[in-house]
Design brief:
Elements (H helix, E strand, L loop, with lengths): L11 E5 L3 H13 L2 E5 L11 E4 L4 H6 L3 H6 L2 E3 L1 E6 L4 E6 L2 H6 L3 E5 H9 L7 E2 L4 E6 L4 E5 L4 E4 L1 E4 L6 H13 L4 H5 L4 E9 L18 E5 L5 E8 L3 E9 L5 H4 L8 E2 L20 H6 L7 E6 L7 E2 L2 E3 L3 H17 L5 H34 L3 H13 L2 H13 L25 H18 L1
Parallel strand pairs: 1-2, 1-12, 2-8, 5-14, 12-20
Antiparallel strand pairs: 3-7, 4-7, 5-6, 9-10, 10-11, 13-16, 13-18, 14-15, 15-16, 17-18, 19-20
Length: 456
Amino acid sequence: MPDSGLPIKEPKVLIAGAGIAGLFMAILLDKAGIEYEIFERSGEVRHIGSAIGLGFNVMPVMEQLGLFEELKSISKPIEGTTIFKEDMETIREIRLRDNRALTGYDTLVTSRSQFYALLSSRVPAEKIHMNKEVVALTQNTESVTITCADGSTYSGDILIGADGAYSSVRRALHSQMNEEGVLSKTDEESELISHYMSVMGTTNPLNPRSYEGLDDKESHCDTVISEERGLTWRYFTIPDNRVCWRLDLQMKDMDPKLYEGWLNADYNTFDVNQLPEAWRTHKLPIMGELGDLFDNTPKETISKVVLEEKLFETWKHGRTVLIGDALDAILDAVVLANLVYEIPTAYPKYITKALDEFYLERFPTTKKELNASQQLSTVLAGKTWLDSAARYVLLKLVPRYFKEKSLEYALQYRPQALFLPIVESKGSIQNTPQRPSKKYTTYLKARGAAGDSLIR
């Protein structure tokens, strides 16, 4: 309950970004009964990108939101992944089948565009304002106001920056904090470091007779490490005999002339004819060559993205908070929505408390996950003798027991929306306990009392 004398005011939330992060946040807020609006910088939805893998961490909240069954219908389960050398010699097979017994869920893979369409179908079109790039923000004890590139302004109680790695909200927030002298030195003095670039796409339906296992129930998820320094390629087979593919380039190992002019701040369409012609003949473990995937992917949907390699320490200030992208965004959104739901009134001290708690829960976990991801990327794709040695130790020598123990926390962390009926734990490893919502408990009691009075 708010302090005595404070009026009860439900918060209004502004969301910058109508990607996966922004849409998922909107769905949660809608279920929580919290007013929101979304502001998207682009003028249209572009069906680009490759695969998105969704693991056990997010499945309980998918069930809560009524998305789980539809997600399964557009996905394939991943039971393992295989890493190959360019000559198709197997380096290691990694099995994920045990995750189902441990958590009750498969890891599912679908195309990014299909997952986006699923989320978009749950958000009313009138809630999304297109061509609204946030270029500035101001905030005080009363509200937060965004200014868009077209000069329009909008105000609310909380601003959520869900606009990607190169977030305009983050830049505006850091600029404001820098002027106030409260931005951390780490964030003030450094920029995003981009060592990796990916070119990616999703094919049209292919002939399953030409590609081994294409029509299998499970997804074939393979990675090939090239003999050429700094180059790997991977793919996931998905329903309707399609393939999501991706080339990863470690730019420090590439001839600068190859990627000069390719760098920018977002997913953008890309002409694969700019790639070296010889790359088209690289083999695929499911038969065929990379060139087959290029040729069977609509040209307008092939994209490239530069992958960030920095975790900013400043996530929140005043009434503004930032969340991550893709899978991280889903977990961020669940935790943040729970805290916003519990705000008794849209008064600064309650908003600050909620954003502080969000940061304390999510920052350490995100930092640990980013470090692990960077190390794994280096191990899988690195070409130095040290990378090869690390790959051998990790994939061949580390006992299964220690790998499973290191995954124990990740397997337990399956946060749910506290303002919806809780999904019971599945599998042999129980969910990490969550603090129950007092507000939701009060709501259920009131609804039960109202139901009893109607019966009488």
